[in-house]
Amino acid sequence: MLVKPPVQNPQPAMQTLYDSDSYAVVHLHMVPEPAPPAGPGAANVPALTRYGFEIVDKRAGKEIYLDGLWAEMFQQHITAWQAKTPTQEEVEDTLAGYAALAQTPVGLH
User: Fold this and answer.
1) Can you give 33-89 as a three-state secondary structure string?
2) Count of alpha carbons within 13 Å of 72, Cβ hemisphere only?
């Protein structure tokens, strides 16, 4: 007999990666619950892990959310920064490139 684990609601994990007078970067990560079986004898379908990055341009009052391929490209920047510590100017130049795409006004979370 299979015992179901207790139901847990997915909780997004949020981690501030960068915060300056000009920009803030938050990493968002969520592992949703698997979808319930479709019928008798059906297996649980594993759910996809979702993650992304929110970049806030504090001066312009706009934000952009990167997920999918955009998040993967941004993750490559972070990995490179971990290997070689960048200057604040280098980080902010990179963030400015992404922030130039921002269209969403910053709202309260």
Assistant:
1) CCECCCCCCCCCECCCCEEEEEEEECCCCEEEEEECHHHHHHHHHHHHHHHCCCCHH
2) 2
Give the global pTM: 0.71
Contact status, residue 54 vs residue 64, Cβ threshold 8 Å: yes
- Judge contact between 32 and 50, C-beta under 8 A: yes
The pair of three-digit structure tokens given for residue 83, joined into one six-digit string: 């290997």
- Is residue 61 left, alpha or beta, with left meaning phi > 0 and alpha meaning psi from -120 to 50? left
Residue where the block lists tokens 């992404």: 98
26-52 average pLDDT score: 68
